[in-house]
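DM from R.C. (forwarded with permission)

"hey, sorry to bug you on a friday — could you get me a structure for this? deadline for the figure draft is monday and I only need the backbone to look sensible"
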Amino acid sequence: MRPRLRARTCVRTRARPALLGLALAAALAAGAPVSAAKRVVAVTADLAALAVAVGGDLVAVETIVPPAVDPEAFEPRPSDFEKLRGAELLVRVGLGYDHWLERLLARTGNRRLMRGGEDYVDASLGIPLLEVRGRGAVEERGHAHGSANPHYWLDPENARIVTANIAEALIRRLPRDRDRIVANRDRFLSTLDSRMRLWGERLAPFAGARLIAYHNSWPYFARRFRLDIVDFVEPKPGVAPSPFHLTRLIAKGRELQVRAVLHEPHEPEEASRLVAEKLGVPFVRLATSVGSVPEATDYFGLIDHNVAALVRALGPQTR
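My reply, with the result:
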C-alpha cells in the first residue's frame, strides 16, 4: 500500500526561506553532484523549488522549462530528453500545461515515469481546480488549453497539496528517509502558515480591486486574495490584441474603474502599457514562476514579490 500524506501536516519547526533558495540554486546548477541523491526532474522552477523544500539534500533537482519562458508555448530540446532519461522522479504541472512532455516520456520508454507509474507525479492531483472545461488539452497558437486553468501554484495554499504529492512520491522511493522528508515538509508548511497570514493582511485592504491582466494566469491568486480580474489584454491565449479589442478593453476599464494592469515577465509589454497609460493606472509586472524576476529566488520569494508589487501599485487607499 502506498504511504499517504495529508495536505495539512502538523507543523513543528520554522523554515528558513533563504536556505531553501540556496538549496534550489545549488540543485539547479550545472554539474551539481547527483550520485548521492535521487535525480528529480521538475517541469518548472516552481515545482523544482517545492521539490527541494520537501527533499532537501535527498534530491538533486533539474528543471525543463527555464523560468523566463512561457511553458505553454515551450518547445523541448534534445537536452531535455537526456534529463528525463536519467530521472528517478518526474514532477509535472499537468492539466495540459506541459502537453509536450508526453512525447518525451514516450521516447524514454521508462514506464515508471509515465502516467500512473511509481515515479510520476502530477502535481495538480487534489487541487481545487478553476475554469474546468471537461475536455482534453488542445493547442491554440502555441498555447495549451487543458481540462482546467493550470496556474494553480500561484495560490500559495495549493503548495500544501503539491508538497504532499511530492512527499508521497519521495517516500515511495526513499522509505527509510520518511521522517526526514516529513520534517522538511513540516518546516516548509510552518513558514507557509506565517507567510499566509502576512500576505493576507497586506492585501486585505484591496479586496475586490478590479484589475486587467495580459494573460489568464491569475485566477487562483485572485481568488485567494479576493481580487477581481475583469478582462485580459489577450483576446485569446497566445493571440495578440487588435486595435478594436484594446479600444473596447480601455472603455471597459474606465467603466469598471480598474485599478491596475497586470503583466507577465515573458509577454510583450506594449499593449499592456498602452492600456495602463490610457486608464491612468499602474502597469504591474508580476512573477509567474520562481526565477522569472530577480526577487523570486524561491517559492516564498515568488509570492512575496507579487504581494509587494500589488501593495505598491494599489496604494494605501481602498475604493
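R.C.: lifesaver. The chain has two domains: 17-192, 198-314.
me: no worries. The CA atoms of residues 85 and 110 lie 8 Å apart.
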